[in-house]
Amino acid sequence: MKKLAANQLLWICCLLIAVQTDARDRESYIRQFQDIAIDEMIRAGVPASIKMAQAILESADGTSYLATNGNNHFGIKCGSRWQGATVYRKDDDRDKNGNLIASCFRKYGSADESFKAHSDFLNNNSRYAFLFQYKKTDYRRWARGLKQAGYATSTTYPEKLIRIIEENNLYRLDNMNPVSPPLATTTPTKPTTPTSSPNAETGKIFIFNGIKTVKAGKRDSYKTIARKNNIPVSRLLKYNDLNRLKKLRPEDMVFLQPKRAGFRGNKKTHKVNGNEDMYSISQRYGIKLSSLLKKNKLTARQQPASGAVIQLKKKAKTTPQLASKKRATKPPKTSTKKPSIGKQGNSATGKFHTVQSGETLWGIATKYEISVDQLKQLNQLTDNVIRRGQKLRIK
User: Fold this and answer.
1) What CATH number did the domain enclosing 381 receive?
2) Which helix (H) or strand (E) holds 216?
3) This prediction's pTM
4) In a domain, 55, yes or no
5) Does residue 139 lie within any of the structural domains?
6) Can you tell me the distance from the alpha carbon of 292 to that of 73, in angstroms, rounded to the nearest whole number?
7) Within a 10 A sphere around the Cβ of 200, how many other Cβ atoms?
8) Burial per residue of 39-74, b for 16 or more beta-carbon CB atoms within 10 angstroms, e otherwise
9) Which residues pair with 311 in a beta bridge?
10) Listed residue (264, 309, 265, 260) closest to 288, CA to CA
């Protein structure tokens, strides 16, 4: 009896450890991908709670075969129009004899691509169109609508999604901005007062302008900072308004979350000192470059003159005095490596972009600073479907 009781106690302990481990894995997964889920909600209209719940369920918190071998976190199959990379796994497809065979699933270059492709998949399929008439905060209706539209064959699919959302408070994501603090934590972070020159040790995370931030050390690079903080390099570059790697200087601020639309400190304006450009000012105050340009009625190729006053909170009434010579807004490209997100070329009739695997219209439009509608008009597209190797006019 004693031996039996001891075995039962050991089994219970093992079970508790397994449950705690699963909870930590899910917490980590939510922390890692909640920002891209919110970004996609703002861009494409899919509730962040639904996207995260589907990703958790379909990818088993990022541990499934498709997630680890194909960066496919939503179990999206190839379909007849898919021209990208593939990965095969037995699912629910059968041959003419009724035998289970391997199904073709889409393979993505990164998890972020998968999260974006999930949005496009729902947006570009007419059977899901009715979902976008629902409120983003009505996750229960969205969950049932996905089942109704045929996203999954499981009869309990809506209940599974709803349970995941409610057990992990994911519904809060639907009312949050990308810079909101992580949900999967019980220890609140005490914010510090925003300042233009935060006094923090290099390598230590601190809160600046409501954003998780680190100061670069002597040997730091975007790659080392991304690795230390478990953030994909591509996402870290995006947070810092970069499309490729640049060399970091000691004491440079690196943002671990998307920057704000404005400055939350006491300062309302900034006086340009010497050769400061809009990018360096946006990094100094933790403001998105696009927002800072818009507030001050500047284009990406315009730079303020030394002594000009830049608005940090409200929209400027007039454009600030410009430098006599235009300078590129973004910092010089220091990497000689070609961008991996697409190829571009010139012709007598315009400028073109060659579509690469995993790219979307939204991503291409953002790269060339035009709208998706403009891109579709230039190429006479009636939907958002593009294929690898396709040439798109972007100018």
Assistant:
1) 3.10.350.10
2) none
3) 0.44
4) yes
5) yes
6) 34
7) 17
8) bbbebbebbbbbbbbbbbbbbbbbebebbeebbbbb
9) 269
10) 260
Query: Is 67 in the same domain as 146?
Result: yes
Chain centre to alpha carbon of residue 46: 13
Domain assignment present for 325? no
From residue 292, give the alpha-carbon distance in Å to each of 240, 243, 283.
Answer: 13, 18, 10
Closest CA to 341 of 113, 42, 79, 4: 113
Distance CA 44, CA 366 (A): 14
- Strand duo 391-393 + 350-354: pairing: antiparallel
- DSSP 8-state assignment for residue 92: E
Q: What is the pLDDT of residue 165?
A: 94
**At 309, is the secondary structure helix, strand, or coil?**
strand
CA distance 305 to 275: 8
Q: Which two tokens stand for residue 294?
A: 């818009």
Please list the pLDDT of the chain residue by residue as tens digits (395 residues): 444 454 454 444 444 333 343 555 898 899 899 989 988 888 888 999 999 999 999 999 999 999 999 999 998 899 877 888 999 988 878 888 888 888 899 999 999 999 999 998 888 888 888 888 888 899 999 999 999 999 888 899 999 999 999 999 999 998 875 444 344 433 333 333 343 345 556 778 888 888 888 999 888 999 999 998 888 888 999 999 998 888 898 889 999 999 988 888 878 999 998 778 999 999 999 999 999 999 999 998 899 998 999 999 999 999 999 987 544 444 444 444 443 334 444 433 458 888 886 677 767 876 777 777 778 788 887 766 777 788 888 87
Where in the sequence is the domain holding 30, given as residue range(s)? Answer: 25-75+114-175
**Cα separations in angstroms, 298 against 169, 324, 329:** 40, 14, 10
**Whether residue 161 sits in one domain with residue 278:** no
What is the reported pLDDT for 291?
Answer: 92
Q: How far is CA 67 from CA 31, 64, 134, in A?
A: 17, 5, 29
- Burial group, residue 375, by CB count within 10 angstroms (0-12, 13-18, 19+): buried
Edge-first strand listing for the sheet containing 391-393 = 343-347, 350-354, 391-393
Residues with Cβ within 8 Å of residue 352, at least 6 apart in sequence: 344, 345, 346, 391, 392, 393, 394
Domain shared by 32 and 121, yes or no: yes
